[in-house]
Structure formats: C-alpha cells, structure tokens
Amino acid sequence: MVFAKNDVDYSLYLVTDSTMLPPGTTLCSQVEAGLKNGVTLVQIREKDTETRDFVEEALEVQKICKKYKVPLIINDRVDVAMAIDADGVHVGQSDMPIPMVRKLLGPSKILGWSVGKPSEVETLAKWGPDMVDYIGVGTLFPTLTKKNPKKSPMGPQGAIAVLDALEEFKAIWCRTVGIGGLHPDNIQRVICQCVSSNGKRSLDGISLVSDIMAAPDACAATKRLRGLLDGSKYQFVDCKLNETFPTTASIQSVISQVSSNRPLVQHITNKVHQNFGANVTLALGSSPIMSEIESEVSELARIPNASLLLNTGSVAPIETLKAAINAYNEVNRPITFDPVGYSATETRLCLNNTLLTYGQFTCIKGNCSEILSLAKLNKDRMKGVDANSGNMDINLLVRATQIVAFQYRTIAVCTGEFDCVANGIFDGKYKLSSGTAGITAEDLPCMIIEDGPIPIMGDITASGCSLGSTIACFIGGLNSTGNLFDAVVGAVLLYKSAGKLASTRCQGSGSFHVQLIDALYQLFHENKPESWSASLKKFN
Ligand SMILES: Cc1ncc(COP(=O)(O)OP(=O)(O)O)c(N)n1
Ligand SMILES: Cc1nc(C(=O)O)sc1CCOP(=O)(O)O
Ligand SMILES: [Mg+2]
C-alpha cells in the first residue's frame, strides 16, 4: 500500500518502545490499542533490539498498521524499511544523511527528520520538497525515554522558532510533529502556543512514546490524547479575533460582578508584597489567602471564583508553583502571572521560562523591561527587578505587549508611565496545522491607559506586585460569561487612577501606602469608572 504524502495524518503519531511495556502487554497489543483509539501514524523505534528481532517485530507491527490503514515508519534503519517495504523512515541528525536515505528509499516513501533548531530548517529548505516530508520538532519537554539526549528541552518557544524558520525559508511542503515529554497536561498548551509568528502555521501533530507505550490501559490513554486533540477549546476551526474593546460601562459591569462574587485570591508571592497585597485584595471586596501549601492548591482552586496570583519573587519551591498552575489550569480558573525580574539573572530566566512552558496563564503582567525581555525585544539585560520605564517608545512597548499576548495566548499587561494591555485570547477554536488563520501579533487589540507620571508609585514597595493582586481580583470575580479583556483593562485603569488620587492626598511615601488602599477602596465601591482620572484609549 502506498500512502499519498498529502494524505498522511500526523495528528497523533505513536513511536514504539518495548522496553517500557507494562506487565501483561506486548509491543503489538499496545500498538493495536493505539490504532483502535485514534493513533494516525506509527513508528517502530527499538533502539536495543538485534536486527533479526527488529525485522520480525517490524513485520508484526506492519500487519497491524495495514489492518488500520495507517502508515508504518521505521526508525533509523533504512535497510529494514526497504526489506519490509515500510511506508517510510525517520532519521536524526546523527543518522544516515537525508539525501542518501532519499536515494535508497525512492521518491514515494515518507521521510522524517529530527529538527531542533532553525539552521536545520534552512538546510532542509535548500534540499527542496523532494527530500524531507516532515520533521520531529523537539525535544519539547524533559523526557527519560530518549537515552543520553543531545538536545536540551526547547519548550513551545523553541518550536515557534522552528515554525518561523519553515515560514522564513518557505518550506511550505514540510509537515511538523512536536516530540519530547508530551502528556495530557501539556498537549493543549503546545497546540495552542506553537504557532508561527505570522500565524500561518502550527504543528501538524504530536508524537509520543511513553504516554501510550507505558500505559497499563493504552486504549484509555489514547482516547484521552485523541480527545485533547479533537474536542478541546484549543482546536482551531474558525479563528476569530476578539474585536470587542473595553468601555467604562463594561468596566462598571466587571466591578459589579467582582463585588457580588467576592473572589478568593490565592497569592503565591514574595514576602514584601504579601501584607500589602492582602490589604489591596480586601479593599477590592475580595478575600486573600497567602497560601504556599502544595497539598491544598487543588482544594483552593475548586472554591467558586478562585483566582491565583503567581509572582515569581516567591521563594516557594518550583514544584509548589507547578502544582498550583496545574490545579488552576485543570479547573479552568484564572492565573495571573508576574515574572518578576524576568531576565535579571539566569536563575530567574530559567524559573520563569520553565513556568511559562508549564502552564496557561490568563494574564501575564510585567514592567517594561520584563515585557521587552519576554518579547525578546530588549537590547540589554535587565538591571535588578525595577522597571526601566524611562521615556520608552510607545510603539515598541505596544509591539512587545502584543507579541507576549500572541505567543502565550494571554492578556498581556506592560506597566510603566503609560500601561499597555493586549488581548491574545482568541475566539473560535484552534486547528492543527493551520495556525491562527493568518492573524498575527500586530492584529491584536491593545488598550493604552495613561494618567501622567506618578513618581511616588516607585517609592513604595510592592506597588507593581499589587497591580497583580488587583488584576487577580477582577478576573477571579467575573461571571462565567464575563469578558477577561474588560476585567484586566478595568483593573489597570482603576489602579492607575487610584495611584494618581493617592499621590494628591499623601504627605510622603509612608502615607502614600495608606492613601493608595483608601483610594482603591473608594473608587471600587463607588464604581464610577467614567469619573476616574486615568484615560483609556485604543492603540489600534
Ligand atoms: C517523530 C520523531 N521525532 C524525532 C525522533 C528522534 O529521532 P533521532 O533524533 O534519530 O533519535 P532516535 O529516535 O534515533 O533515538 C523520532 N525517532 N521520531
Ligand atoms: C524519540 C524521541 N525523540 C526526541 C527528540 O527530541 O527528537 S524525544 C523522544 C522520546 C519521546 O518520548 P516520550 O513521548 O516518552 O517523552
Ligand atoms: Mg535516529
């Protein structure tokens, strides 16, 4: 059977490994369980098997694949692929060179290549469309399956760089599968975030080993994976830009919802911010809990209107932070992420990047330097954790805010003398392969909030962190039909106006702290956004 290359479905690509079979299962039983429940492509990869046994196993697996009309790819061994007339071969950077493999295989067989960086894409593009048919993009996340890995995990951002290179070098024929450490807890995020910057291409599928091969119930494991690929909100069917813009009327409605829903706002934050953040939360009619207890995050996330503020100035262990992200993602409750001092040190860069690939965040808030770093538009490394707001170019800051919003599918907030809020949460559904239907970062709605300089804001501790508390209150207090963009913009507008009001009433930085809480309390409970001093305007 010859599979037309354009008909290959890369969506759920099983790679075998018989060293991890659970008791009572066999290589063939796991493969058949996968094929019965939605695996669309199989690769036999048995790194420790003698050739004779490998050929016999490959023939067995080939019989099953033919039964389900699914192509069989052979890992590494071009000779075995030719000997059994398999449907294709997958080779890596240290295996037989692609042109040689293609010469042996002939033009009709499927040829896959492992790619970990843009320069390898440039090479395959130069070879042209008759060489590489698809690439395995990885290693996405840490995995124990591949022994002595030569590549460190690249995360979704690394995959985006490879997708961008495919667009840049016009390798339009080349399909892509993500691979490495893929499991139900990160697949939706990978599909959602791994989109080229021009919006035209996302991954064509995911490829995995242990989630199925090591599963005691491979049918159930495959069904779960298939469900995540097909039925989730991350499946693009008709990508629509969210064209609604916040108004003072819609912000007034947000405050009414927060007031009546009284959200529980869990703070995992730095010690300096804890007390002030709790008081800001109370001033906004919400209930703070400053808990870093890993064993209770799932319970807290399930409390109605729960909202998590994750400020990476916290000294909580990374496993606690991951558990909290998982807990709130699992029940679809909002997380506000504040990557404090994003790239100020290697430690912070590594921590923040790990968390950014681990979870889906409703809002990512940072100062100018943090957002410019996240968008990779910063020229020099941040100094310390204070914002270098200065007289930044508004176009640069808006662009950076839109890039962060687009790449992390989030509402991005960039704070400074003026604040930018960009909405990267699309309507519609995601679809493998087709990206965001051409929508790109600069298409995203962006609001600018201004109230002139408030220098004293920088003279107190936790003023920036407490905007995070405010955002977490607003998005946590929304009804299920509430508009997240309205809520985040409303939080930023309230916070800016309260800061200005407090600066006119205080005698110095000491009383400014108190006046800021009073102003937040007053403006929130009056709920008259049309009278607030800060201005709100669309950027685009
Ligand atoms: C789909 C897919 N992607 C990547 C790989 C890795 O291939 P390679 O780099 O040759 O490493 P080994 O698998 O040979 O250890 C793959 N096999 N399949
Ligand atoms: C075969 C393979 N190739 C990788 C690459 O990065 O090229 S990672 C990998 C193993 C993936 O196994 P699991 O799904 O169990 O994490
Ligand atoms: Mg190989």
Count the beta strands: 17
* Backbone CA Rg: 25 Å
Mass-distribution shape: elongated
Strand arrangement across the biggest beta sheet = 10-9-11-12-13-14-15-16-17
Number of domains: 2
Assign the CATH superfamily of the largest domain: Ribokinase
Q: Under the CATH scheme, which architecture of the largest domain would be assigned?
A: 3-Layer(aba) Sandwich
Main pleated sheet: 9 strands, mixed
Helix count, DSSP H or I runs of 4 or more residues:
19
In whole angstroms, the N-to-C terminal distance is 53 Å
- CATH topology of the largest domain, which one? UDP-N-acetylmuramoyl-L-alanine:D-glutamate ligase
Structural class: alpha/beta
CATH class of the largest domain: Alpha Beta
Estimated share of beta-strand residues: 5-15%
Small molecules bound in the structure, each named once: ligand LCLJCK34, the ligand Cc1nc(C(=O)O)sc1CCOP(=O)(O)O, magnesium ion
Helix-residue proportion? 40-55%
| Average pLDDT for all residues | 91
Query: Uncertain regions: pLDDT < 50 for 5+ in a row?
Result: 233-237, 381-390
Cofactor: Mg(2+)
Pfam families: HK (PF02110), TMP-TENI (PF02581)
GO molecular function, one term: ATP binding
Protein name: THI6-like protein
